[in-house]
């Protein structure tokens, strides 16, 4: 049976992974659906859908309508009225007096006034991101109250009995009573405002939300916008305008004006909420289960590394600074420090390089001496150490082939020649931005655009590739070490 802190660590880990899955699912939906919905929302598609329902027009009348639609420009012009208004006015002026004009104009108006579906997608993404945070937050608070009886008792409702006689009759153990009490406290808290959640974390956990955010006013605005989207259809309220102005997010949005949620804003929301949630969960976890530091910070390590691989350097820098502060073990701190500097070189190079140059690695292991050389772009000195560590098993093939720390070394002819002898670490999927396909008939692994791919099926992970059973296609060469120009490839 798990101890209290062990169970707490498991609960936090499950909450973190569920949260990440939800945010990444929302990101995937936004990425996949945006092109299709944007195309469906385009003027040409809107008009085509409308024309397809005009069954009551003769062929000649339909041709007249088509000719009119072709003459009305769909381009947005700041000096002209919106294209739906221009189109509707043109229809009315062109066909006044026809028996079907009123019906056509009414149906066209109904079609054109429908809200943009791409707007719904972006707004739904923001709402989904905040909802995912709420799920995470409620899970964290429930885990905290389970492991901290004092906090649970201090939240007892005054002048109310904890349980009714009916409640007690339905319980068979004390644990059931505790679970019910925890559930009630969490429900009460979640019905409160974001400000109340912040106050709870300050009072009960000594954790400040603003310490976990790279841009606290922007995070506050996200939660305020979510409230406006859900309760006011995206129309700015007095509260929203006043709150954003007082938080330093002053904008041109006036009360009663629709808030435009762009694709860039939706993506930034997912990134901000993801960082905020992970850092909050890590901070809560470290409060009560420091002996499980590795498990608790693992998700933070993985997230910062994944973002480093896709070059989200601003997010990585923020995550690594917070991770370095949170980690207790020196190894964890150092890993956050190095990855943070890799990102920092891209976002704020001069201060980052000053920090790297003053970094004393004399008492550290070879891995960090190598890291400093790479950060300082001393490839000639770093490569011999890399080879030695790889041969000794102190540096994995995954690190050699994909860690962004070695980006500059991979461009050298010496590295490219040496890397040809490295066995590919099957199971990693970030070596190339390609999809891979296995042909079970020919027993061959291909890339997507290979002319020899045939009936190969896409694989979700290179872990499915068994080098003992399958071979690499010689035509497409799935894992090239150099490209046509000789630039290094991982």
What is the topological layout?
Layout: H1 4-40, H2 43-51, H3 59-71, H4 83-95, H5 101-112, H6 117-147, H7 149-154, H8 165-169, H9 174-190, H10 194-205, H11 216-232, H12 238-246, H13 263-288, H14 293-309, H15 313-326, H16 330-347, H17 349-357, H18 366-375, H19 379-392, H20 397-402, H21 413-419, E1 436-439, E2 444-447, E3 457-458, E4 471-472
Parallel strand pairs: 2-4
Antiparallel strand pairs: 1-2, 1-3
Helix pairs in contact: 1-6, 1-13, 4-5, 6-9, 6-11, 6-13, 13-14, 13-15, 14-15, 14-16, 15-16, 16-17, 16-18, 18-19
In short:
By secondary structure, the chain is an all-alpha fold.
Key phrases:
490 residues, mainly alpha, 4-stranded mixed β-sheet, 21 helices, 62% helix, globular, disordered C terminus
Structure report:
This protein has a 4-stranded mixed β-sheet with strand order 3-1-2-4, with no helix packed on it. Helix 16 runs antiparallel to helix 17. The protein has 21 helices and 4 strands. With 490 residues, the chain is mainly α. 62% of the residues lie in helices and 2% in strands.
**Overall 3D geometry?**
globular
Sketch the topology as an H/E string, one letter per element.
HHHHHHHHHHHHHHHHHHHHHEEEE
Q: Write down the Rg.
A: 29 Å
Low-confidence stretches: 426-433, 481-490
Query: Helicity level, as a percent range?
Result: 55-70%
Largest sheet, strands/sense/barrel? 4 strands, mixed
Mean pLDDT: 82
Total of helices: 21
Give the beta-strand count. 4
Tell me the strand order in the biggest sheet.
3-1-2-4
């Amino acid at each position: 049976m798990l101890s209290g802190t062990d169970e707490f660590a498991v609960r936090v880990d499950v909450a973190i992974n569920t949260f990440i899955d939800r945010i990444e699912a929302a990101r995937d939906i936004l990425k996949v659906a945006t092109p299709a919905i944007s195309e469906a929302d385009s003027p040409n598609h809107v008009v085509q859908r409308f024309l397809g329902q005009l069954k009551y027009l003769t062929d000649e009348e339909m041709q007249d309508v088509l000719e009119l639609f072709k003459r009305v420009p769909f381009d947005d012009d700041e000096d002209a009225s919106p294209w739906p208004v221009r189109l509707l006015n043109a229809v009315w002026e062109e066909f006044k007096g026809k028996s079907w004009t009123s019906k056509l104009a009414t149906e066209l108006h109904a079609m054109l006034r429908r809200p943009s579906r791409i707007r719904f997608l972006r707004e739904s993404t923001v709402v989904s991101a905040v909802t995912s945070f709420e799920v995470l937050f409620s899970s964290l608070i429930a885990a905290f109250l389970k492991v901290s009886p004092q906090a649970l008792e201090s939240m007892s409702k005054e002048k109310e009995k904890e349980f009714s006689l009916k409640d007690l009759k339905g319980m068979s153990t004390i644990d059931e009573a505790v679970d019910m009490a925890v559930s009630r406290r969490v429900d009460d808290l979640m019905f409160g405002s974001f400000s109340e959640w912040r106050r709870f974390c300050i009072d009960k956990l000594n954790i400040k939300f603003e310490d976990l955010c790279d841009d606290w006013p922007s995070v506050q605005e996200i939660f305020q916008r979510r409230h406006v989207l859900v309760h006011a259809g995206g129309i700015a309220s007095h509260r929203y305008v006043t709150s954003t102005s007082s938080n330093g997010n002053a904008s041109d949005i006036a009360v009663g004006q629709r808030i435009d949620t762009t694709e860039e804003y939706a993506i930034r929301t997912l990134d901000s909420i993801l960082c905020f949630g992970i850092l909050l969960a890590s901070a809560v976890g470290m409060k009560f289960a420091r002996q499980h530091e590795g498990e608790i910070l693992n998700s933070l390590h993985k997230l910062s590394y994944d973002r480093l691989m896709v070059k989200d350097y601003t997010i990585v820098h923020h995550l690594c600074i917070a991770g370095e502060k949170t980690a207790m073990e020196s190894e964890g701190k150092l890993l956050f420090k190095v990855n943070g500097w890799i990102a920092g070189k891209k976002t704020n190079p001069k201060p980052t390089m000053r920090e790297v140059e003053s970094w004393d690695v004399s008492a550290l292991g070879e891995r960090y001496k190598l890291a400093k050389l790479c950060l300082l772009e001393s490839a000639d000195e770093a490569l011999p150490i890399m080879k030695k560590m790889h041969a000794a098993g102190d540096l994995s093939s995954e690190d050699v082939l994909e860690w962004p720390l070695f980006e500059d070394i991979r461009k050298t002819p010496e590295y490219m020649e040496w890397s040809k002898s490295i066995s590919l670490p099957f199971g990693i999927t970030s070596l190339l931005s390609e999809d891979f396909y296995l042909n079970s008939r020919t027993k061959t692994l291909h890339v997507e655009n290979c002319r020899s791919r045939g009936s190969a099926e896409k694989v979700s992970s290179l872990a499915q590739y068994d080098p003992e059973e399958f071979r690499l296609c010689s035509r497409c060469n799935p894992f090239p070490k150099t490209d046509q120009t000789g630039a290094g490839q991982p």
